Amino acid sequence: MSLIAEIAVTVLLLLGAAFVLIGSWGLVRLPSTMERLHGPTKATTLGLGALLVASVVYFQAKLGVWTAHELLISLFLFITAPISANMIAKVHLHRVRIGAVTEPDSIAGPPPRPTEQGDWATFEAPARDTPASTASS
User: Fold this and answer.
1) What confidence tens digit (pLDDT) does each residue in 72-119 have?
2) Higher-confidence position of 31 and 4
3) CA angle 107-113-117, nearest 5°?
4) Are 19 and 29 in contact (CB under 8 A)?
5) What mean pLDDT, rounded, does the chain reach?
6) 10 Å Cβ neighbour count for 28?
7) 93: Cβ–Cβ under 8 A, 6 or more apart, which residues?
8) What does the DSSP assignment read for 62-121?
9) Number of Cβ atoms within 10 Å of the Cβ of 2
10) Distance between CA 5 and CA 66 in Å, rounded?
11) Residue 60, Cα to own-chain centre: how many angstroms?
12) Helix or strand run (H / E) with residue 10
């Protein structure tokens, strides 16, 4: 394996490990659910992407084989992480709104409240007597 490939693999491994560590630390240490979402969806995703690219570079340099599995895993991860985080955030905002869950004080402060027109889709209450409604008639 060439010196350039070894340096590239080493840098990608260290970079990926640092991002994964920082993202995991954020998941554990941040106080509220909304803040905890940023660790796994941002830093950890980038860290795993760097580790997977390091694997591609290593196997190309060592065995002379291009592998697409790692790239497909990275693509799947980069597509699904923001979507799942968005769904978790929406559910959390609904649960906070109806009082089903309480949160510790956030570093960023409370979320902004909607205006009378209901400018956030996540703050709009479902119509009465629908399956999503928690209000009784």
Assistant:
1) 998 898 888 888 888 888 888 888 777 777 776 666 666 656 555 555
2) 4
3) 155
4) no
5) 80
6) 9
7) 111, 120, 122, 123
8) HH-----HHHHHHHHHHHHHHHHHHHHHHHHHHHHHHTS---PPPSS-SPPPP-TT--SG
9) 8
10) 14
11) 29
12) helix 3-29
CA 102 – CA 109 distance, rounded (Å): 14
Q: What is the pLDDT of residues 59-76, one digit of tens each?
A: 999 888 888 888 899 889
Tokens, residue 5 = 């490939």
- Residues of the chain with pLDDT > 90, as a percent, come to 24
Phi-psi region of 37 (alpha: psi -120 to 50; beta: other; left: phi over 0): alpha
Contact 49, 79 (CB under 8 A): no
Nearest to 50 by CA among 67, 66, 71, 69: 71
Residue 24 CA to residue 95 CA, distance in Å, equals: 25
Q: CA torsion sign, 128 to 132 to 135 to 137?
A: positive
Structure tokens of 69? 């599995």
Contact in structure between 122 and 93 (CB atoms under 8 Å): yes
pLDDT of residue 31: 79
